[in-house]
Every structure is written in structure tokens, then in C-alpha cells.
Amino acid sequence: MIKFLDLEKINAQYEQELKQAAARVIDSGWYLLGNELESFEKNYAEFCGAKHCLGVANGLDALRLIFKAYIEMGVMQKGDEVIVPSNTYIASVLAISDNDLVPVFVEPNIDTYNLDSTLIEEAITPKTKAILSVHLYGQISIDQKMLDICKKHNLKLVEDAAQSHGAKWNGLISGAIGDAAGHSFYPGKNLGALGDAGAVTTNDTELAQVIDALRNYGSHVKYENKYQGLNSRLDEIQAAFLNIKLKYIKEDIEARRQVAQFYLSQINNEHIILPKVLEVEQHVWHLFVIRTKNREKLQQYLTENGVQTLIHYPIPPHKQNAYNEYKNLSLPIAEKIHNEVLSIPISGVMTKDEVEKVIQVLKISST
Ligand SMILES: *Cc1c(COP(=O)(O)O)cnc(C)c1O
Fold it and tell me: Which residues get modified to N6-(pyridoxal phosphate)lysine (predicted)?
């Protein structure tokens, strides 16, 4: 069976270094907000080309903290609206609603699966304060039109960069294109910790200072609390692991691009729609997502032929029980995508034989 994602094999590549780092942290007696985190924050800010990086507990918290900080700063207030794509992982929407802000769903482009910037302006009201643009599957979702709209309407542009480490657009790297970005280092992400971890990047020094306090009970100075904060920190041991894996991320992205290039050039099946790439460097292939009218049949056929697949995602946020208030919204493009997408294996550790097998199986599929 070709695994959807072989995490064991991915981390085995760095086994010696990871074990040494774990031992170093254990022996140091210092487990939170120390040198390992400081070093990772510096390295990851540099990797993104952002002024500031703040490690937090996970990707959802990174996004939650950005909106919480904007509220503390008076940039937005409870009840304000945030535009978000209707096809995304639920965490994007949770980050908005958790802050008592209102998610306004805008449909994606059916080819890129990312927010359709031509539909944004009609969704703007006097309460709109931000766009949360999700670089879904690893492809940058921001274009010049979106930047112009943000400028014209004085909106903050927040990136959900959970899936797009290292993706590049117009000379800028994911995490340094908008006003602030939330990153996830969940183990299965392209840059994955060995547990939960996340970060905020931004060029906005005030925002960085507020989040620095908010992630630590709202405190800049021990036992003095300026804000009603959270406890959301990135552990030293995870920061140490991430520092190691960050060194190899560029090679990993290259390897993923090669797999994607094979898939794109060799899977030719009239029943299967392949993903659309805008520019090579704009996509880092967190997921390789195909579309078909007969998804259940195709998934079963792939399983029977030794190829494990997953669905990202089967139910759109507005159809989740958690968001009952939106269940009657009509968002046909998002619904179509959620009904038809299927993610096939992609990673930097797939062998050429495995990639070829996936291609062969898909080539002769009759669904
Ligand atoms: C993974 C993910 C998140 C949440 O990150 P966690 O670290 O799992 O909390 C948010 N948005 C998107 C698009 C994601 O893929």
C-alpha cells in the first residue's frame, strides 16, 4: 500500500539530529520561551522574509491571536466582518468566530480553489475589516487585485499560511505578503513538528508586540497583565525539531514539485481534473488534489489498487453542525469542490516507483 503520507519515513531522514536536539532540550532544564524558540523565530522570520515571527501553540491559535490582537489594538471590534473563502479547513473560520467577528464567505475560483478576487468587492460592507486569504493546498491565494481592494477599502490582509511554507509570489514569500500570517507546523504539514506548533509572522511591530503578550497570558512583564491573554506557546522541544527540519525544507519543496510535475504531465484521464498551477514557485504542493464526478468510486478503486487517498475536505464549513446559522447559504462552487476533490499521495520521500504506480493506476481508471 502506498501511504497517503509516510510521516515515519519523513522524520527518519533526520533521526540522529532530532534525537540529539531532544536530548539537548531535556538536559537544558528549560522547556518554554527559551533559546530554541528564539532561534527558530529568527530563522523562520528570515525564511519568510518577515520582520517578526512569534511561535505559538498551533496554527489555529496563530490565526486566533492575530484577530485578537487587532481587536486589542482597536483596528477591529466584535461584530465586524472578515471575508474568508467558502472552501477552507474549518480552522480558518473558527479563528474569526472565536473572536466574535463575523465570517463572510466568498466563493473560490473553480480552477485554483483559492478565493476569487473578482467576487470580493460585492461582499464588502461598512463592517468589513479584513480578508483572511487561505493558500489552500500550498498555492498562494493573493493577487494584485486583492491587494488593491485591501488598500482601497482599508482592509487588513491576513494570510492563512498553514499549508504554504515557502510558496512565493511576486518576489514575496508566504507569510510576508499580507499584513500578518498564521502558520501551522502540525506534523503532516510541509514543515511539521512532532506534535502541535504554529507561528505568526508579520512586518507590523506593534502587532508583534501585542501577540507576544497575548500568547503568554497577556503579559510582557512577569505577573503584570496588560491584556486578557491566552496560554499559547511553542515548546522548546518542538522549536528545536523545527529548526532542524527548516534546514531541509527547500529540498523537500523541490522533491514535491517533481512529484507534482510527473503527475501533471502523465495523468491523462478524461474523468480526472488535475490541479491548475499559476506559476511553479507559487505552489509548494502540501496536497495534490484531483477532482472527479465519481469520487467514492475512484477512492475505492485506488484503495483496491494499493493507493491510499484522503479528502480535503468532505464538508464545507457552512454545512458543519458547528455553523448551523450558515447552513442555508448557497455556495455552489465550494459545495461542488467538497463533493469532487480527492487528495492523492505526495511528499518528498515518495520513491519514483511509487509515483509511477500512482500514475499507472490513475491512467487506466474508468472513473
Ligand atoms: C492545518 C490548518 C490550520 C490549523 O492548524 P493547526 O496547527 O492544526 O491548528 C488552519 N488552516 C489551514 C488551512 C490548515 O490546513
Answer: 189
